[in-house]
Amino acid sequence: MSGDEFDIIRRYFTRQTVARSDVSLGVGDDGAVLRVGSRTDLVVCVDTLVAGVHFPEQTPPAAIGHKALAVNLSDLAAMGAEAAWATLALTLPARDDHWLGEFARGFFDLAARYNVQLVGGDTTRGPLSVTVQVHGLVPHGAALRRTGARAGDRVYVTGTLGDAGLALRLRQAAAATLRERLDYPQPRIQAGIALRGLATASIDISDGLLADLGHLLAADPLGAVIDVDALPRSAAFLEVIDAPGTGSKPLYYELPLSAGDDYELCFTVPPERCAALEQSLARIDCRCTAIGTIEATPGIRCYRAGGEAYQPSATGYDHFREDPDG
Amino acid sequence: MSGDEFDIIRRYFTRQTVARSDVSLGVGDDGAVLRVGSRTDLVVCVDTLVAGVHFPEQTPPAAIGHKALAVNLSDLAAMGAEAAWATLALTLPARDDHWLGEFARGFFDLAARYNVQLVGGDTTRGPLSVTVQVHGLVPHGAALRRTGARAGDRVYVTGTLGDAGLALRLRQAAAATLRERLDYPQPRIQAGIALRGLATASIDISDGLLADLGHLLAADPLGAVIDVDALPRSAAFLEVIDAPGTGSKPLYYELPLSAGDDYELCFTVPPERCAALEQSLARIDCRCTAIGTIEATPGIRCYRAGGEAYQPSATGYDHFREDPDG
After folding, report:
1. Which residue has the higher pLDDT, B123 or B43?
2. For residue A260, what is the DSSP state?
3. How many helices (H) and strands (E) does chain A have?
4. Residue numbers in chain A where pLDDT is lower than 70
5. Does the distance separating the beta carbons of A18 and B116 come in below 8 Å?
6. Which of A281, B20, B87, B230: disulfide with B120, CB 3.0–4.6 Å?
7. What per-residue confidence (pLDDT) applies to B6?
8. Which residue has the higher pLDDT, B195 or B169?
9. pLDDT recorded at residue B51
10. What is the mean pLDDT of residues B268-278?
């Protein structure tokens, strides 16, 4: 969710008069937290992918099926929920059996990996668009939120950043491992569960690190210092960036900071829990990297390893703005 | 859901490998029934409205907001659930503040009436389309389904049929009461709750009586005889149909049988419970009409009051077929 979109939601969709006592967390986080029993909370997330906006028209249908579910599971992961059920609203310009078979394969392969059952849906005719809603379960009160970070907390990210952005930029020229990161993102469900009781706040990085960390900070509000040389980059990413001619040093910083589509988690941890956190993620073989620290002064300040300030040139991707830098 | 659409779902989206023990009812009914506690079941419904397919482009935005929620609440009603939470995935070609304000007003006015809280959403840029998902609650095991009717059960419908179809046909020339039925359908939530423990099967009439009753019957499979003269018609409907010149006797039967968009409930009741059922609906001022009887022989057979067979000319609306009669 980006700046202008966030404003739309805030202006028009938070003015409702209904406030139910069973809603622990409503509009504005990665998902809603709903009270459904004395021991369990229900976490609900919804995301729409539109052809030509969220994925290129020529994206393989299996990748669309995968990604439509994955981006929602990533939201569940950010809240520390275990995935349970999904619904699918699919709008298609015309019936296409090959497309449907491939889409379903991509969707169900990922669903099986996380024990997610498709329980309902709607198919309609119209311009290609996919809305998936996922439902997850979490022990009562244990859901992670965007709010809760405190000054002094360390800022972490899972996995590596910038791979999807680089794949999008290189398109067909991208190496298979990079394209895989763009088309078949793996939601960090196990990592989210491992963060319960350890992280103070959590968000998934879909719009880019700076944009999503910005949402986490704005919730309180707080600030952060980030070491841009500490950002985790994959071997495939470095191979392209370091190559003479094709590489570009600015991209070394800009893609991990702003490109988005990585679907990793960004979370905050008090210093005294960092060792436990790193052990918890090591047990599930999830790479995690400390990239900075929460501060009381609002804003995100980037530094290079040597201590000099780094000024990012963009702050994420906004579907409603023609020129995100404008 | 119509014939071809149902086939798409059946072919591609029921082949999943995951079968969770907490899913009481999955794909194929008006909603899913999910086990979330020892005493309560969660009912989840999702529906998409696409501009130009489900509503004319010039539909007032308040009506779109209302209807996007209403069609989902109608599914909850068919299952006997009490409404609780909603999510909204809104795809817009461009930001339009007047449109958003009116859409939100229509959505929230209806939400307030049924104590539904919007708990999450996603706004994206693309061709206008609205996907709403609603969550309802029902005592464990009490959800009504499409399955469960038995030969000998009486077939009932709530309210009146054909009003929305007539409004769509007359467009701007339709009387306000008819247009209201098309643009601002009222979900039968209270009626659905009143049906718990009395109805054996239930479905909402969104695709037309014949099509939706056909789904209810196909689930078992069973047949039904329908008295087409007993179908409930509103005063506004009869005024148009009976008028010299403007009226049409074939529409007197065809619209209530096939036009759809009425969002009334069709349900079945064993003869010994009919008195209790009629009392239960009278207490909430919900009109209900016995229109026929379930039989063991598959198929829907229509008769006029005098006993002669009536042959309907269409069987509902199919988004994926260019010619529904074809």
Report:
1. B43
2. -
3. 10, 13
4. 1-10, 245-248, 314-326
5. yes
6. B87
7. 52
8. B195
9. 87
10. 97
Cis peptide before B221 (omega within 30 of 0): yes
Is B23 within 8 Å of A119 when comparing Cβ atoms? Answer: yes
Q: Tens digits of per-residue pLDDT, B49-74?
A: 988 888 888 889 999 999 999 999 99
Tell if the CB–CB gap between B108 and A133 is shorter than 8 Å. Answer: no
At position B295, the amino acid (one-letter code) is E
Q: Identify the pLDDT of residue A10.
A: 64
* CA A281 centroid distance within chain: 18
What's the longest Cα–Cα distance across chain A? Answer: 60
CB-nearest to A118 from B13, B101, B135 is: B13
d(CA B117, nearest CA chain A) in Å: 5
- Residue A290 token pair: 């400390």
DSSP 8-state class, residue B31: S
Give SS3 for A186.
Answer: coil
Residues B315, B143: Cα–Cα separation, whole Å: 27
Q: How far is B48 from chain A (nearest CA, A)?
A: 7
Residue A12 three-state SS: helix
**Vertex B236 angle, CA B164 and B79, to 5°:** 45
B212-251 per-position pLDDT tens digit: 999 999 978 899 999 999 999 999 999 998 887 655 667 8
Chain B residue numbers with beta carbons less than 8 Å from the beta carbon of A42 are 36, 42
Nearest to A166 by CA among A237, A230, A95, A108: A237
Q: What's residue B173's pLDDT?
A: 82
Q: Are B66 and B187 in contact (CB under 8 A)?
A: no
Q: β-strands B32-35, B23-25: how paired?
A: antiparallel
Q: What's the confidence (pLDDT) of residue B208? A: 94
Residue A165 Cα, gap to closest chain B Cα (Å): 20
Q: What is d(CA B75, CA B206) in angstroms, rounded to the nearest whole number?
A: 9
Q: What is the pLDDT of residues B136-157, one digit of tens each?
A: 999 999 999 999 999 999 999 9
Q: Please state the separation of Cα B72 from the chain's center in Å.
A: 9
Whole-angstrom distance, CA of residue A112 vs CA of residue B19: 10
Cα separation of A120 and A118, whole Å?
6
**Vertex B13, ends B10 and B14: CA angle to 5°?**
65
CA distance A162 to A238: 10
